[in-house]
């Protein structure tokens, strides 16, 4: 794994994004400790897509070279829990935004989560992970970059399978690299 900015014994990173994008799964596959998950049966239209959903947060840990610990937090995807994004990003150094490409309007979802976290992102970086590309090939990664460019934002956009430890590691490394090298 990449080295984080020097002098931080612990680093907090937050996974956010749309329902079903893979936030809980990503934290589960990369965490070295059993993840803490606050899952509940959905009571709205999410119930048609998945049997459980995050209602407060997910939490996991990952140790980097040199013993530096990453604290990994995942936000709920349901919009009624958006207030948790503002709570969970306090003290975080960066954001991994996961977008479900099979969502009916994934670029709108990207805009939504970037707008939701706009204050946080004024002085902190993000990495965009596009999931479910195997289910929906469009929009393409290039279209995500164009969406970011139209907003005046330039962050890495990567294809990611949240079930793959390697893919999630690449997302984390990309964010740590942006933190380290700007």
From TrEMBL:
Sequence similarity: Belongs to the GPN-loop GTPase family.
Organism this protein belongs to: Methylomagnum ishizawai
GTP-binding listed as a keyword: yes
One of the record's GO molecular function terms: hydrolase activity
Manganese in keyword set: no
Keywords: GTP-binding, Hydrolase, Nucleotide-binding
Protein name: GTP-binding protein
